[in-house]
Specification:
The complex is a heterodimer of chains A (129) and B (887). Chain A is mostly helical and 129 residues long. Chain A has 6 helices and 2 strands. Chain B has 887 residues and is of the alpha+beta class. Chain B folds into 4 domains: 50 residues, no CATH class; 231 residues, no CATH class; 296 residues, no CATH class; 194 residues, no CATH class. The longest helix of chain B is centred in the middle third of the chain and has 38 residues. Chain B is globular and about 130 Å long. Classes of the chains: A mainly alpha (129), B alpha+beta (887).
């Protein structure tokens, strides 16, 4: 099913927008991702992803206040739309299905160690707000 | 004061960034810049800023090339096309008429454009065509300008020697008197003769000047040996299949002792060349009589010059003309026995002079040039172009009329668009793009029609035109044209539709389009005027054609069979004729090359009354050698005197003249003696004038004297079974000439063939007028359907209140019929003027007559009436409930 398409970076951006609930704009999203995921994010990559997500209808934006340190330019705040939320849930549930489908031994064999965590690998289900 | 980031990268960013994103991203960049600067210093911040800007330069961020506004327009355009397509489907009949009518116009235009292109391309393929000129001799006789191409043999070389501007000069001679034209041919080792046309005497220098392309042989020396001949590829394939014929011998007219040697094979002359020959006989060492190549007293050679590049032909022509006349023509004519004053008077009175005509003008601008080549006519090109344009105009008018008439249906759409913010310009764009869509569809359909009609068009225009799909310019120009035409046709409707006031429209008070608008009436009148002019033209051409075919022409052309190629019989001709006479189907036989149809032998001679040669001007006349059976066979009518009699020995110096010659010699000529170069002749009879040339020309003097020259035999047959008669003749022929297939034609066919161009013109006019009328009627049909639709409520009310079917029918019909009547009134004088001009070409012509106007008037009214009444009757007999129940 190709209904909801969400790339890895796009997913990260979506999640971050969710984390920053109400305070998500270019710089804050960038900082959040950089500090949480310990990876560098260029403005270009981020803006492209934001734009694409907006075009897909997963995010919506509104212009915020113009502050002095921004040389009078307004902030563009992003929030997740209902459709966006569905897309995120869909992505998450497909991941879970895949996780659940992996036989438990497989993970042991792959690692080659005894992996105690893998025995009770249980991901939380239900993501009620 | 705040520090600002580096200016150039910022500017660059502002330039490339999508305007929708610019502000917010720039804000982000600024914020980050400030922060970095505060923590890590300005240099670091600048570097990072530049890096960020560069990383932003990627597809999602960069503005689209056309700017983001036009992105929206593209969407609008798509919407326009969707709406157009829907309205097209919604009104299938109107759309069909719009597109179909337009397509017919496009097809006609396309074919005619190709025709004109072909006409204009004549002789342009000769590399030197801009420097090659043909000499024309021009005289003015009784106010008519006459041009000839035949000149004395030595003129070409004489002029070439005197004027350095002339790089080369060459001549050809295609006169049948010298043995050019049609002959019996065979390869030396073959037995059977074949009949072939296209023989001509040709200078080697003419080959050089035209740079004729050779398949075999040496172009420089092809005709340089005496007795050499150059043939075209197709004839080489015919007589020498699968071999290189250079050096082989070709026998003409059974003269096996004097064959021609093939010096080369050229490519066939293109169909767009004014020269159309197949056998070029070399002129080296050739003289038709003693001193013929030196005499200025006989004009038989068409003469061409290759001028130096950049020579002004007009001033050069005047120089050559006066020089040649003074230095050669006048002395030549004086030495021919005429007095100097007489010769000078001739040149002065007739304003005789020389002109130079560029070869690429020959095809279209050779009106009134007398030579044996067939030409196009620039007037036909103009006429065709005009007609094509008019048909397209008629179709475009349908388009405009229907678009504006149907405006009421689109009014609400326009109103709504305006209410939600469309500007007038947007609406104009919408309807323009709609009309372009219609136009493109019509062009596609038109191309298809043109492909289907191509063969028919070729057959009536006598061309071999094809649609140049492969040419690089074809597809773009057709597409470009379809867009331009679409825009032009759409201008008025789009401006008209976009002018609606939204409030009026949405309130529903707009009734524009329901009543016949003055503009629409004018356009209908225009359409019908053109159609009626074409109709009248067609009828006048038909009438003239009938006149030609049925005119009393002074001889009997029915039941006369012409046997050609009898020259090869040699001395046996007499015996052959005698045997033919014994056949029961044959009435009479005459041997003689001079026949009263085009393509037979002609000459020109001066006659004088006895003893007046040096005092009177010559009566220029034909001098035909015939046999004693000529008058009888052709049914000429003797008005005075008698026919030749074999038993009277003195008839060998007797002459029979026509009435015109008698008149020019002073009248009452019977028994008198007249003289010409060949001796003294006694007039024993006068025949009624007969038309031996086309009816375009006056009948000129003719004298008939006994003598034998015969490559043609005319056989008068009894009325009856024609195939049986032909069978009888063939039997006799095969006895005398077993190696040559019989070849015959009929005098009346040959006579009709002289007017092929008129018939062609008639066919073309008929086709065009039918086209014009069909398109105009399509428009009228749609318009009347629309009117009935609009007035259905009114008609219903009238019917309910007791109007008769008849009165409703009249009401609906009269509106349109009025327009057709006005068109007739306008078309009549225009077509009368045009057709009078056309008829002026004919010395003998029919009257245009009132009947033509009445018949074409009635025809057009009837056609229009039938077209309209279909809808009117439908409306008049409909149940009024249908028109009223919606309220």
């Amino acid at each position: 099913m190709k209904k909801y398409q969400l790339g890895e970076f796009e997913e990260v951006v979506m999640l971050t927008v969710g984390v920053l609930y109400g305070e998500a704009y270019g710089v804050s999203i960038k900082k959040e991702i950089e500090s949480r995921l310990k990876r560098g994010v260029s403005v270009g990559a981020l803006q492209t992803a934001l734009r694409r997500l907006e075009d897909k209808g997963y995010l919506k934006s509104h212009e915020g206040e113009a502050t002095e340190e921004r040389a009078g330019r307004p902030k563009k705040y992003f929030t997740i739309t209902a459709y966006g939320k569905k897309a995120m849930e869909y992505t998450r549930s497909t991941r879970e299905e895949l996780w659940n489908a992996i036989p438990k031994v497989a993970l042991k064999v792959v690692t080659g160690f005894r992996l105690p965590v893998a025995d009770n690998l249980q991901l939380e289900t239900g993501n009620n707000e | 004061m705040k520090e600002v980031p580096p200016y150039l990268p910022l500017r660059f960013f502002r330039w490339f960034c999508h305007p929708k994103l610019r502000d917010s991203i720039e804000g982000d960049l600024m914020e980050m810049y400030e922060e970095t600067k505060a923590t890590k210093g300005k240099t670091k911040a600048d570097t990072k800023f530049i890096l960020d800007v560069l990383l932003l330069f990627r597809p999602g961020i960069i503005r689209p090339a056309e700017g983001h506004q036009q992105l929206n327009n593209y969407g609008m355009l798509k919407n326009y096309l969707t709406i157009s397509w829907r309205s097209l489907l919604k009104q299938k009949m109107y759309s069909f008429i719009k597109i179909g009518g337009f397509a017919i116009g496009v097809a006609a235009c396309l074919l005619i454009a190709l025709f004109i292109k072909d006409e204009l391309s004549y002789d342009k393929h000769y590399t030197n065509h801009k420097q090659l000129y043909r000499a024309l001799g021009v005289i003015t006789e009784n106010g008519d300008i006459k041009k000839g191409v035949a000149f004395p043999a030595p003129m070409a070389s004489a002029i070439k020697e005197v004027f350095p501007e002339i790089l080369n000069a060459g001549r050809y001679n295609n006169s049948e008197l010298f043995g050019a034209g049609a002959q019996e041919v065979r390869a030396a080792d073959a037995e059977d003769n074949a009949y072939d046309e296209g023989f001509v005497y040709f200078d080697q220098s003419l080959i050089d000047m035209f740079q004729l392309k050779f398949v075999h042989g040496n172009p420089q020396k092809a005709l340089s040996q005496p007795g050499a001949i150059v043939i075209t590829k197709r004839k080489a394939d015919k007589y020498f299949p699968n071999q290189d014929p250079v050096g082989k011998a070709l026998v003409v007219n059974n003269k096996a002792d004097k064959p021609y040697t093939i010096g080369g094979v050229i490519e066939d002359f293109k169909s767009t060349s004014h020269l159309q020959f197949d056998f070029l006989i070399g002129m080296e060492g050739l003289e038709f009589w003693n001193g013929e190549q030196k005499t200025w007293g006989a004009s038989n050679y068409a003469t061409y010059f290759l001028l130096e590049e950049g020579t002004d032909a007009k001033s050069f022509e005047a120089k050559v003309s006066s020089e040649v006349i003074e230095k050669y023509f006048i002395p030549g004519m004086i030495s021919g026995g005429q007095s100097e004053t007489e010769v000078r008077k001739f040149f002065k009175d007739k304003q005789a002079h020389l002109e130079l005509q560029r070869v690429d003008d020959i095809h279209l601008f050779s009106e009134s040039v007398a030579d044996n080549l067939s030409y196009g006519d620039i007037r036909i090109v103009w006429l065709f172009g005009g007609v094509a344009l008019f048909i397209l105009l008629i179709a475009a008018i349908n388009f405009i009329n229907l678009s504006t008439a149907k405006s009421a249906n689109r009014a609400k759409e326009v109103g709504l668009r305006k209410v939600v913010g469309s500007l007038r310009g947007n609406i104009i764009n919408q309807f323009l793009s709609e009309s372009v869509m219609f136009s493109v569809l019509s062009f596609v359909l038109g191309l298809a029609i043109a492909v289907v009609m191509l063969q028919y068009f070729n057959s009536i225009s006598g061309k071999t035109i094809f649609i140049p799909w492969g040419e690089w310019w074809f597809a773009p120009s057709v597409l470009g044209l379809s867009i331009v035409v679409g825009i032009i046709a759409g201008i008025y409707p789009s401006f008209y539709l976009s002018s609606f006031k939204p409030i009026q429209v949405l309130k529903g008070t707009l009734t524009q389009g329901a009543k016949s608008s003055p503009l629409r009436s004018t356009l209908v009148i225009f359409q019908f005027t053109i159609s009626i002019i074409l109709l009248i033209g067609t009828m006048v051409i038909q009438k003239q054609m009938n006149f030609i075919l049925n005119k009393k022409i002074g001889f009997d052309k029915e039941q006369v069979l012409l046997l050609q190629g009898t020259g090869t019989l040699g001395t046996q001709v007499g015996a052959f004729a005698n045997e033919l006479r014994e056949a029961p189907q044959v009435v009479e036989v005459t041997t003689g090359d001079y026949l009263p149809v085009r393509g037979s032998k002609r000459n020109g001679n001066g006659f004088w009354n006895e003893g007046r040669k040096n005092t009177d001007p010559a009566v220029s006349s034909q001098f035909w050698r015939v046999d004693p059976y000529y008058v009888n066979t052709l049914g000429l009518k003797i008005v005075e005197g008698r026919d030749f009699n074999r038993d009277i020995a003195s008839d060998s110096s007797a002459i029979i003249i026509n009435q015109n010659m008698a008149k020019e010699l002073g009248g009452n000529m019977l028994g008198k003696r007249i003289t010409n170069y060949a001796g003294l002749w006694t007039v024993i009879g006068v025949v009624e004038d007969f038309h031996y040339e086309s009816l375009r020309e006056d009948i000129r003097p003719v004298g008939l004297a006994l003598g034998t020259e015969a490559s043609v035999l005319a056989v008068k047959l009894k009325a009856g079974d024609m195939s049986e008669s032909i069978q009888a003749i063939t039997t006799v022929w095969d006895k005398f000439s077993p190696h040559q297939p019989i070849r015959y034609s009929f005098l009346d066919d040959r006579y009709a063939a002289m007017y092929n161009d008129v018939q062609r013109m008639g066919k073309i006019f008929t086709s065009f007028s039918i086209l014009a009328i069909v398109v105009a009627c399509l428009g009228l049909f749609a318009l009347s359907a629309f009117m009935v639709e609009q007035r259905s409520k009114e008609i219903s009310v009238r019917l309910v209140l007791g109007a008769s079917v008849n009165s409703v029918f009249q009401l609906l019909t009269w509106d349109f019929l009025r327009l057709v009547l006005i068109s007739i009134v306008i078309a009549a004088p225009i077509s009368w003027y045009m057709m009078s001009r056309w008829l002026e070409d004919y010395a003998y012509r029919t009257d245009i007559g009132w009947d033509v106007f009445v018949i074409s008037g009635i025809t057009s009214v009837l056609i229009a009436l039938i077209t309209i009444s279909f809808q009117s009757i439908k409306a008049a007999v409909m149940s009024p409930v249908k028109g009223l129940r919606s309220e």
